[in-house]
Records
---
Amino acid sequence: MRILSGIQPSGTLHLGNYFGMMQPAIALQEKGEAFYFIADYHSMTSLFDAEQRRQNSLDVALDFLACGLDPKKSVFFKQSDVPEVTELAWLLTTLTPMAMLENCHSYKDKLARGLSPNHGIFAYPVLMAADILLYDSNLVPVGKDQKQHVEVTRDIAIKFNHTYGETFVIPKEQIREDTAVVPGLDGEKMSKSYGNALEIFGEEKPLRKKVMGIKMDSRTPEEPKPDANQNLAIQLLKLVAPAEVAADFENRLRAGGLGYGDLKKSLFENYWNHFAEARKKRAELAANLDYVNGVLKDGATKARALAQTVLKRARKASGLE
Ligand code: ADP
Ligand code: TRP
């Protein structure tokens, strides 16, 4: 089974990225042949600072490796090191109905937020389809917001196979229900672009301040709270704390007698400790960038070899060769 996923170097990675995509992807590296990449071409749709892209790409590499991506088990590379993907995107784009892209939620959300879209933002799902199909991927671990893009990929692959003959493997998304949408500090989906994120790696003081600043309702500590499971701090605690610790806090909140300040303090401590080991590993990696760059280079060589065989298949099928 081939597993593939990507993450954009468009900002600092946060708990939504970690629990929605990175942790499931890292767990899957034991289950099959995993390909994970830094989607730097995709980041060009929203980030227009070259140096920032370079820095973010390195940060994503450090974050992913520190969190447990094992280059002995997974092929880890930068999307743009395999430029074949842009050629495949063209082959696919000619079979993609405009209406299918106009219907994509992520595109519609961007329009709704008043963004004046460039063609890249519109065509984004086609490049993503090329990412997935170029490696004969079976399974794509992603957060819920990417589900539709994998569905689009499937539709395009089926259309290509129908038009030019069996060429592509039909992929499927994998979404972990318990972490499908990690809420941010404001209760909305945590996102790099909404200013509501808790970073995986950051400075202790500002992160503590963010957690302690989470807005709660005005009920007194003594009051029982039958809706304790809806509480944002409880929801986040369930992700970062041992199950029995989170359950204990939830029960105490439900029963009454637990103050929000104490709850938030515990949330911060568990969040900070959850990533203690990864933080140490990240510092070691940051002091050894030759190793990190070597991993990406090696990954690109392996990925490119596979990409070239699949692209050739598509070129032949469609009469380019
Ligand atoms: P962002 O919304 O912060 O820009 P990306 O779109 O780069 O994040 O997402 C990278 C991966 O992380 C995707 O698989 C996405 O589904 C997942 N992801 C992002 N935010 C969340 C979240 N809040 N909850 C669950 N998964 C998420
Ligand atoms: N669009 C994805 C995101 O924003 C990133 C991505 C690009 C991706 N290509 C992919 C994810 C291929 C899975 C498979 O999160």
---
Amino acid sequence: MTRLLNCLMLLGVFILAGCSASKGTSSESDWVRVTNGNLWLTAGGDTVQAHAPGFLRLGDTWYMVGEDRGREWRPDVNLYSSKDLQHWHFEKKIIENGVTSPDLGKSRMIERAKLLYNKKTKRFVVWCHWESSNYGASEAACFSSDKIDGTYRLEWSGRPLGIKSRDCNVFVDSDGTAYFISTTVENQHLGLFRLSDDYLSVVEHTRLFAGQRREAPAIVKLGQRYFMFSSACTGWAPNQCKLSWSDNLKEGWSQLENIGDNKAFRTQPAAILEVKGTKDTTYLYVGDRWKDPNLAQSKTIIFPVTFTDTSCDFRYRDNFEINFKTGEWREDAKAKK
Ligand code: GAL
């Protein structure tokens, strides 16, 4: 009898284990330790050159584009991929000085390249700051390709709707409407530019934060609410990161509130990533620690941020752990308490 009971219990354990495995329950090995402050290297030992990065997640792969500051003031745009934001594989130089456009590397340079995928046209689209050496051009540019690692062609460059435009980012709303958002008119305002359905041109402009001199904007949406991080305009020198929120992208943005320390932990916003898993959603702040000590060795810093109704816990961590399956994050087990 006891033997029969033991057998039945053992069977139960196997069935339970089988059930949880088939539900894709995560295990300890799914936790990834993220370390901040060092240069990111590829498996081959090369420095990851993708500054002021833009991200696109396809399936379980994160793609990252950004400035290759190897030749400091003539940045090409590199594409990398990773499953865990820690191990990066170099895919391709997707935009290259003198190759993608004859102006690039001569009268123009690229900053803050950001990557989008247009579901209707099935094209990959890059928007960026398209600038002259003295920042006088104040233009934007748009490139597209039918493959993420394909040949990107220049679609358009100029001042969006005739408006001087510098530091920039992109945001895709839950209905697929995409926006290019940039610092406009000699760094005075932020311009929210709605893009056409194919994401290749700008069709509408809304001025935000008039006269408040914000740049490096990064937007994320939680439920119906939009949150934006931005910096002041102090070049490569870090400054206070500020938060604003609104339930409408085009109006009603709250007053800018200080978050974190007064130097954004020596970073400037580049992106806010959403890691949605089976149990939770974690938001990751990505910022550039510029000129650490030179442009090429600028660091990419990532840490989890927690939004409440109208605010955000914006706290730097040297290390933390994240689980891309469940979407959870936790303090690093080895971190000093
Ligand atoms: C920063 C900006 C960077 C770059 C730099 C040049 O304010 O965020 O993208 O343009 O100025 O000084």
